[in-house]
Design goal:
The longest helix is centred in the first third of the chain and has 23 residues. The chain is an all-alpha fold. α1 packs antiparallel against α2 and α6 packs across α8. It is built from eight helices and no strands. It has two domains: 72 residues, Rna Polymerase Sigma Factor, Chain: A; 87 residues, Arc Repressor Mutant, subunit A, CATH 1.10.10.10.
Length: 174
């Protein structure tokens, strides 16, 4: 069993990295998070229950490691606009125009400002394609809480896009 689990963890690495990258906003930080999460998982294989979802267990570990590192570093989390453009924004091909880049930047800033709980749920659904039930199981929360957090996160992102990059600036600033 342990060797099969190890192989399955290796197969999950791209998904774990993508999730960690979206959480941390940095490729280097994501690599560190995934490495730490894999080390934790491998040293605690006895805590994994055979027959349950390995990906959920690993996502939980990645999320915990990212939160712990973020708390330690006490810095704001930025998300790479390319990841957002490809994974979260419905149209992955953003026009090269200035307006599109500004919209993407607004979404990135709004995502950075989301509370961690909302950002995690949004990323698990939009980036990883997990079902609401899978997210609920992964985070150990009721499905209604997943739906509520996701709804609030989507609303905040939509408001950021509607407000646009120049919202809040005085006419003289434009």
């Amino acid at each position: 069993m342990p060797q099969d689990v190890r192989n399955d963890i290796v197969a999950l690495l791209p998904r774990l990295f993508r999730f960690a990258h979206a959480l941390t906003g940095s490729k280097q930080e994501a690599e560190d998070v995934v490495q730490t999460a894999c080390e934790r998982a491998l040293t605690r294989l006895d805590q994994f229950t055979p027959g349950t979802r390995l990906d959920s267990w690993m996502f939980r570990i990645v999320r915990t490691v990212a939160i712990d590192r973020g708390r330690r570093e006490r810095r704001s989390v930025a998300v790479d606009p390319v990841i957002l453009g490809e994974q979260i924004v419905e149209d992955a091909r953003i026009a090269e125009g200035t307006a599109a880049r500004q919209d993407l930047d607004s979404v990135r800033r709004a995502l950075d400002e989301l509370p961690e709980q909302q950002r995690s749920v949004l990323l698990m659904v939009a980036l990883e394609g997990l079902s609401y039930q899978e997210v609920a199981d992964t985070l150990g929360i009721p499905i209604g809480t997943v739906m509520s957090r996701l709804s609030r996160a989507r609303r905040k992102l939509a408001e950021a896009v509607e407000a646009g990059p120049l919202a809040g600036q005085k006419d003289s600033d434009r």
